[in-house]
Every structure is written in structure tokens, then in C-alpha cells.
Design a protein that fits this description.
It contains one helix and ten strands; from the N terminus they run ββββββαββββ. The protein is an all-beta fold. It is elongated. The two termini are 20 Å apart.
Length: 194
């Protein structure tokens, strides 16, 4: 498989755009794969007020050719079925089953998180002065197998004094716009892994 590198960009407030092309070449070595996948990403982190931030990432892709595709060549999405949240908290699903919605066809993935310094609980001065931040988030996936998989969540960062990176989350999960279940997660605002 050959995959292109990201297009270079300067660090600024503009969105970062990435175009990826992956090719499974059947004639090299003993390779049995034969596919072409194109993916386009847009991601941006914006300051929306005093210590408030908006983070969004949208990714869309399609397999142009899938003559010979195996599970490891599918497009996989960063799911999580454990109580502990790890990795990039802005672009990771909270309750998506591992591999269940992986695809060798077309897909659309979107993540939006707004971090507030003053929203609901943080309107109370003693809560705000303690350094808590509130997050509202939406995570969305559309594939032939995942018909409008959506997670809508609320998170609190900094609940433990002295550990501002600790977070707790509550997430409502919807399949095809119908409520499925609620999940709770604990994690960190640090980015470990993908």
C-alpha cells in the first residue's frame, strides 16, 4: 500500500486541509490487495472568546476501486468501548464499537467540540475560579453500515484540584437519529496516541 503525505501548511488560524490517496498494488511482492482510496480532511481550532475554543474536524472518503480489499485495508474509525477515554479527545468517538462500522466503500466523519470557560456550571463564580471548563461535543459517522451514527456529549475538565487535565463525560448515542444509549467516560485532555 502506498499513502501520500500531508500537504504542508503554516501554523495559523486557517483550516488545515489534507488530501490522502492510498493504493493497494497487487503486483509488488506477494501482495493480494488491489484498491484505490481517496480521502479529504479539514480541521480547525478557533478561539471563540475568553478561554473558549471551537474545534472541528471533517473527513470524507471513498474507495474508487475495491477489487481486492481485506479488513486491514478498510477505513477504520477511532472507537471506544472502555470507560477510559484516551487519545485525541476532539476526534475520537466515545462509544463507537471497534470495527463494526469499518468500511471499504464511502464514508463521512465529523467532530465538533466547543470548550467553554463560562457556560452552565461555570456561570457560578466559585466554579469558574476553580478552573473548570465545560465542553459540548457532537461526533457523527455515515457509512453504508452506520446510518447516521451520532454522539452528543457534555464534559467537565478540571474536576480534581491540581489536575486540570482530568475530565468526565456523559454521551448520548443515537443510531439513525433514534436514541440508543448513554455512556459515561473519564479521561484526560492530554493527547496520547492517535
Amino acid at each position: 500500500m502506498y499513502e501520500t503525505a500531508k500537504l504542508p501548511y503554516l501554523e495559523n488560524n486557517n483550516p488545515s486541509l489534507t488530501l490522502r490517496y492510498a493504493k493497494g498494488i497487487p503486483t509488488i511482492g506477494n501482495s493480494a490487495v488491489d484498491y484505490d482510496r481517496v480521502e479529504f480532511d479539514i480541521r480547525q481550532d478557533l478561539e471563540t472568546g475568553i478561554k473558549s475554543e471551537l474545534h472541528y474536524a471533517v473527513s470524507a472518503g471513498v474507495f474508487l476501486n475495491r477489487r481486492s480489499v481485506y479488513l486491514m485495508d478498510y477505513k477504520h474509525f477511532m472507537g471506544n468501548r472502555t470507560f477510559i477515554l484516551y487519545g485525541d479527545s476532539y476526534t475520537r468517538f466515545r462509544s463507537l464499537p471497534f470495527y463494526e462500522y469499518s468500511t471499504s466503500e464511502r464514508y463521512l466523519e465529523a467532530h465538533v467540540t466547543n470548550v467553554y470557560r463560562r457556560f452552565l456550571l461555570t456561570r457560578l463564580p466559585f466554579v469558574r475560579l476553580a478552573g473548570l471548563k465545560e465542553n459540548l461535543m457532537v461526533h457523527y459517522l455515515l457509512t453504508p453500515m452506520a446510518k447516521h451514527y451520532t454522539e452528543v456529549g457534555y464534559a467537565l475538565d478540571g474536576l480534581i484540584p491540581g489536575f486540570p487535565f482530568f475530565r468526565v463525560e456523559a454521551i448520548a448515542v443515537f443510531n439513525n437519529f433514534k436514541y440508543d444509549h448513554t455512556a459515561f467516560r473519564v479521561g484526560t485532555t492530554f493527547k496520547f496516541g492517535n
